[in-house]
Amino acid sequence: VVFASSGRACITYRVEVGVCLASGDPVGDHRAWPQAVDAWLRLCQTYGWAPGVMGASSQGAQTYREAGLTALELGDEAILRPADFKLSGPEMRGVR
Best label site of 15, 23, 39, 95, fewest CB within 10 Å? Predict the structure, then answer.
């Protein structure tokens, strides 16, 4: 975990094969997100890690963009309610 200088936001991450992968949006006060991203990018630079982020919201992606990263939309999340979700029927054939 790396914290903004104010301590009001942080970024959680894991390093694998030289990539420092942040787990989505910074945590904490949205106003401190840019500070948290800056601290995280400095940490990446210190250790020679390539920064990456998975699962950021549009607000999080904008914060990362403003820090110089690029964003790529990989898809949408779906919320499924197991009691109501069914794979039966012709409209779900491609999913089965």
Answer: 95
